[in-house]
Each structure stands twice: as C-alpha cells, then as structure tokens.
Amino acid sequence: MAEKQIIVPPTSNGVSVPAFEQKIKLNTLQAQKVMKRVFSRAAGSLYRIDVILRIIGSDQDAERVELVIHTMLKEVEEALRETEVEMASMLEENGIDALPVYDAPTEESVRITSPHVARFVSLVRKLDALIAQIDALWLSGLMTNKDRNDAVYRWQQRIIGLGSRIIGLERRARQAAKRQGKSEEVDAQAPDELQTKGEELETAQPANDSQAISESLEPSDDTQSVSEPKKVEAIV
Length: 236
Prior knowledge:
- The protein is elongated and about 60 Å long.
- The protein is mainly alpha-helical.
- Helix content is 60%, strand content 8%.
- The protein has one domain (2-209).
C-alpha cells in the first residue's frame, strides 16, 4: 500500500497549536484525487481564515463566518448521507453484501487542527465508502458505465468544489486585511501558503470588508461550479 504524507502547516509564530495526527486508508481513485488536489490547502485555509478574521474583524464576525462554513460542510454531509442510504438500499435489495477490492489503496497521514478539518477528513472517507458502493452496483451489472462514471465524477468534483470554496475564502480574507493595512500582522500569524504555492489572489474590492467575507461564503458562479450529483438508478 502506498503511503503519502499530507501535512497541514502549523503556525510559524511559535504558538503551540493542538492537533490530532491520523492515518486514513483510501481505496478509490476519486477520494485519492480529492486528497491530492485540495485537502492540504483547504485544511490550512480553514485554520488561517479564523486567525485572519480575528485580526481584521470582531469575534462576532469570526463566529458568523464559522457558522457559514459549518453550513457549507453540513449541506455536503447530508447529501452524502442521503446518497449512501440510497446505495445501501439498492445493494440490499439485490442481495449484494460485498464491496470491491482495489488494486492501489493509499494510506494518508493527516493533521487535524480544527473541528472543521476533522469534518472535511470525514467527508473524504465517506466519499471513499460511497464510491465503493457505486462500484459494487456497477460491477454487479446494476449500473451502466455512463451512470457509474457520471456519479463518481460528480461526487469527486463536489468535494473538490467545496475545498476550492474554502480556499477562496482565505483569498478574500487576505484582500480585506490588505485594504485595512494589516497584511504584515496577518502574514506573521498566518503565513500566506496560497501565495507561496502560486495561487493568485482575486482583485475585486467590495465596499465593506466584513460584508465581503460573509458574501464570499454564499454560493456564486465562481465558487459553486459543480451541480449536485444526480440520483443513481439501477438498471431494471
């Protein structure tokens, strides 16, 4: 089994941050892609957003944004749960009680630095389990190739899209800090990992910083590009 190290950068200002170190096994290509493409950046952004907002706004502002992030995660959690129940029912109805074995599972080491990061890790694990259910239906002849491919791709992209939205929030928070002349303070406490990895910050400048951060969490064309996965129907 291949082992990869996914590290969420700790703070560089000497602050001792509590964290869990975990290893998770991922069987499916789709879950592995989510980890590779967005997990470390999204997890780091979740930590840094909180730090930045407490510098440029009030505790109330930070709590309001935290609530919206909670809602973003909850929506995907509930959709995953609903689809998992649907897949489990189809498997049971057709007498399928085994899941596929995968040729190249990976073991990922993750650092849990906040409850939101823990929830994102849980989403990736649930995605892995859901894809296995879909593959079981497909291998049993209960789904067409097209339906299977559409389902796994849409779910992969939905989780990647969620991660991208979270990363986008950090970009906007840094823009607000720059407009307030607090970039140095922010960079000292929450180093700009996005910039060092070649990520470009957006240049739009809404009138009110606190409102801008809140608005950035709402679904929009640039952050919500992946539609909700369609329900899967078995071949009859």
